[in-house]
Amino acid sequence: MAQAEVRAGLGLLGDRNFGKSVHPGQNLTLVEAEEIEAFCQQHGREVDLGMTRRNLVTRGVRLNALVGREFRVGELVLLGVELCEPCSIVGKLLAGPNLPPAKVVKHWLGRAGLRADVRVGGVLQLGAHIAPLR
Known about the structure:
Layout: E1 3-7, E2 11-12, E3 28-32, H1 33-42, E4 56-58, E5 70-73, E6 76-83, H2 88-94, H3 101-108, E7 114-120, E8 122-125, E9 130-132
Parallel strand pairs: 3-4
Antiparallel strand pairs: 1-2, 1-8, 3-7, 5-6, 5-9, 6-7
């Protein structure tokens, strides 16, 4: 998708979690392309950047460093709330004949991405630049 609408306090229009706000950081999830590629290489899989079910796949930015910080993604302003640690669903989705779900979850601990709240919404463009605000 080349662009998507993102609304402040609600998230990505059309996403299964759009408008849910049970806890902070539920608006958007981000993951690093480099982590997906490393997982695929380590486990002999073809790269699928959508495999972790995160909303945004980034490149060239360390997401863990954005916890507790406001940052820009194109015209959007997000607040990094917490790490998006892997759950049993991700474990089951990425498991394979020689890779049990528990091992998948263990692999992704600390590298499965970031949960963020949308402070300023707008249109998210493919290739948007990511930069901390402070």
